[in-house]
Write a structure and sequence with these properties.
CATH topology of the largest domain: FAD/NAD(P)-binding domain
Number of helices: 18
Strand order of the largest sheet: 7-6-16-17-18-15-19
CATH superfamily of the largest domain: FAD/NAD(P)-binding domain
Bound molecules: flavin-adenine dinucleotide
CATH architecture of the largest domain: 3-Layer(bba) Sandwich
CATH class of the largest domain: Alpha Beta
Structural class: alpha/beta
Distance between the termini: 46 Å
Oligomer: single chain
Radius of gyration: 23 Å
Strand content: 15-25%
Helix content: 25-40%
Length: 477
């Protein structure tokens, strides 16, 4: 019997892990990737002797089997990096997770009292009045109180998403904030470590040469097993023949090409996939797909003539007056990220595709961020030797108040295509981490390996199975 042919759209962790397992099993695999490098959002950019992720990416997982597979794949390349994060609140830095001494000596006492009163009021009133969580704002205020919402959760979230937290689904808070309530904080502050919430992984795995090495290693395995990865190949047409994908059209080297396969595994953005369907789907599907939006991120990467700027892995800057929402120093992730005696920084700036931040010339972004860095006073900014920006268009799927209906509609449409397996963060419009995407890739491969008989092709795309995967894994940052 002829080998089955599989075309994988997108060479991020999801697409690569699927292609790896299928190539290893002897299938004919072709991966189409629009960029000139594999890794998707988890790739690492080299600039001379410096390495920059698209925002530092840690690898964590609760799935032991998955952890073992990645450990084996990476052999001695994986470091164990301690996590050291701080949050800037009201002009002061607080360690995250919160520490009693740090909190007590740094936070103004009136605010501490206000937060506690607010917290008690919100917990009691939620119970008595049976308050519902219609939005992210409700979810947080009902659990943490208004004061903490105003000073941290509300401002940070609005800065990251670019929309009011009243317009963001409460699901997002429930999934992202595993700090269940202030009682957790208080018990931890009292020294009860057993209550440490799951998001507080205090160390994580990180490849010496940047997160992109995990994808590079998968690429090596795919190619070793005869799989083909075509870089610079932008998928722009999905030709359908009733309920089947007949062929995939893509642009490569200035030419329009197409390819057909027994199975198509898609990790490209779900809205782009639907928008590329030919014939076009019914208008309600096309409209729902159009309304599924992603938040973009622009990164300002700085090379600094200094040994070190901070000893943190992450610094969260929620205040609106600063352009960036997070700062990372790659050297604190791996010493190999910068040469001896030098360091580098990544500033993360949330924006929307096509807006003034996404499109501003690099020097405008740099000038604005330099002023903000001077305000922070972390280091002498005259020591910045070089800068450049990088960009991720599909950074965060936006979970607005109607996202569930849109995802359900889009999923129904994709389910009707018999030789399609949608996976990954963009492919499923799921706010997931790289380990989840890798796992989805493995599940998609397994589905195809089992001849599509398990009908898991559709359940992989369903909320319940995706959540099921998550339940076993480390919660997201
Ligand atoms: C700022 C930031 C920080 C993060 N930090 C962490 C972290 O610390 N740890 C963690 O585990 N996760 C983190 N994540 C999440 C992580 O990046 C994603 O979960 C992961 O990249 C998803 O992998 P994927 O393969 O599903 O999607 P992607 O990585 O997005 O891959 C999709 C691929 O499809 C390609 N593609 C898109 N359109 C087309 C087209 N038309 N034709 C061909 N190819 C196309 C893209 O170029 C890309 O390579 C972070 C995300 C962001 C935005």
């Amino acid at each position: 019997m002829d080998k089955l042919k599989i075309v994988v759209l997108g060479a991020g962790p999801a697409g690569l892990s699927c292609a790896w397992k299928l190539a290893e099993a002897g299938y004919e695999v072709v991966v189409l990737e629009k960029e000139d490098q594999v890794g998707g959002i988890c790739r690492t950019i080299r600039r001379g002797d410096y390495l920059f992720d698209l925002g530092g990416h840690r690898f964590i997982t609760k799935d032991e089997e998955l952890g073992r597979v990645i450990q084996e794949l990476m052999a001695d390349e994986l470091l164990t990096t301690p996590r050291k994060s701080v949050i800037r609140l009201r002009g002061k830095y607080f360690q995250y997770p919160l520490e009693l001494k740090n909190l007590f000596f740094n936070m103004d006492k009136l605010f501490l009292i206000e937060s506690m009163c607010d917290y008690i009021y919100s917990v009691v009133s939620k119970r008595l009045l049976n308050k519902q969580d219609a939005s992210f704002e409700d979810w947080v205020v009902n659990r943490f109180g208004r004061a903490l919402y105003n000073v941290y959760f509300g401002v940070y979230t609005e800065k990251l998403w670019g929309i009011s937290p009243k317009q963001i689904s409460a699901d997002w808070a429930a999934q992202r904030i595993s700090l269940l309530n202030l009682w957790d904080v208080l018990t931890r502050l009292a020294g009860k470590e057993s209550n440490r919430p799951k998001t507080y992984a205090l160390e994580f795995a990180y490849p010496k040469a940047g997160i992109g090495r995990i994808s590079d290693r998968m690429r090596e395995e795919i190619e070793k097993n005869g799989g083909k990865i075509i870089l610079g190949a932008k998928v722009n047409k999905i030709f359908l023949d009733d309920v089947k994908i007949k062929k995939v059209g893509y642009q490569h080297g200035g030419e329009l090409k197409d390819i057909s396969a027994d199975w198509i595994v898609s990790s490209i953005p779900i809205n782009e996939f639907i928008g590329s369907m030919d014939p076009a789907p019914r208008p309600e599907y096309a409209q729902a797909a159009k309304a599924m939006r992603f938040r973009a991120v622009r990164f300002l990467n700085l090379i600094v003539d200094a040994e070190e700027v901070t000893d943190n892995t992450w610094m969260y800057i929620p205040e609106k007056s600063f352009l960036f929402f997070r700062i990372q120093e790659p050297k604190n992730w791996s010493r190999a990220s910068a040469p001896a005696g030098k360091t580098s920084l990544i500033l993360e700036i949330a924006c929307n595709p096509g807006d003034e931040i996404a499109t501003a010339p690099e020097e405008i972004i740099f000038d604005r961020c330099k002023k903000d860095l001077d305000k922070l006073g972390l280091f002498d900014t005259s020591k910045i030797r070089e800068y450049f920006t990088t960009y991720v268009e599909h950074g965060y799927p936006i979970y607005d108040l109607t996202y569930k209906d849109k995802v359900a509609g889009a999923t129904r449409l994709l389910k009707s295509i018999s030789n399609l397996v949608p996976i990954g963060r963009q492919g499923l419009f799921r706010y997931n981490n790289m380990d989840h995407s890798i796992k989805m890739g493995f599940l998609a491969a397994e589905h195809i390996l089992h001849g599509g008989m398990e009908t898991r092709i559709f359940s992989i795309a369903s909320e319940s199975v995706a959540f099921e995967i998550e339940k076993n894994l480390e919660k997201r940052i």
